[in-house]
Amino acid sequence: MADLEFARKTLAAQPFSALLGTRLTEFGDGVATLELDVRDELRQQNGFVHGGVLAYLADNALTFAAGAAAGTNVVTAGFTIDYLRPAVGATLRARAGVVRAARSRVVCRCEILVLDAEGAGTPCAVAQGTVSVLS
Questions:
Q1: Rounded to whole angstroms, how far apart are CA atoms 40 and 35?
Q2: How does 67-85 read in b/e, with b if 16+ C-beta sit within 10 Å?
Q3: Which one, of 98, 24, 92, 94, lies nearest residue 67 by Cα?
Q4: Looking at residue 106, what is its pLDDT?
Q5: CA dist., res. 128 & res. 80, Å (int)
Q6: Quick one: which of 17, 34, 112, 133 is 20 to 30 A from 119 by CA?
Q7: Would you state the pLDDT for residue 84?
Q8: Quick one: pLDDT at residue 114?
Q9: Residue spans of the chain under pLDDT 70
Q10: How many helices (H) and strands (E) does the chain have?
């Protein structure tokens, strides 16, 4: 299994993640946490964080959590996301964990919080996904 530093290098190798400034703050034992600072370029016309940004975070958090359990050779097979409330705040935090890991598929769940300037979190989205283990 990969360690936190290896996982951070993997995240840094993703050009889109580097563009957004995503950070991996937790990785291991079937859990991964990603954080992303909210900035104007990530908002939609009403001032909320764009749903595509939340979906990106869910996708990556789900896959990193699966990788923490099943190894690094994994890809997202599919996921669903439910938006609970508009994301308004300073930082997004997506924490995903493995529900069940099998030989070729890993099922994970993710909760996304939006943190205010003081660090208090409010749930803004939840996701569940399946990750394929490549052979």
A1: 16
A2: bbbbeeebebbebebeeee
A3: 98
A4: 98
A5: 6
A6: 17
A7: 98
A8: 98
A9: 1-2
A10: 3, 6
Decide if 38 contacts 87 (C-beta within 8 A).
Answer: yes
Cα separation, 61 vs 33, in Å, equals 6
Torsion from C-alpha of 53, 55, 56, 60, nearest 10 degrees: 140
Residues 77, 20, 113, 84, CA torsion sign = negative
Say if residue 21 is exposed, middle or buried (CB neighbours under 10 Å; 0-12, 13-18, 19+): exposed
8 Å CB contact between 66 and 72:
no
Containing 39, the helix (H) or strand (E) segment is: none
End-to-end Cα separation, the chain, in angstroms: 15
53 neighbors 21 (Cβ within 8 angstroms): no
Q: Are the beta carbons of 126 and 82 closer than 8 angstroms?
A: yes
Neighbouring CB atoms inside 10 A of 113's CB total 18
Q: Which two tokens stand for residue 39?
A: 């900035």
> What tokens were used for 111?
């909760």
The sign one gets for the Cα dihedral 75, 78, 83, 84 is negative
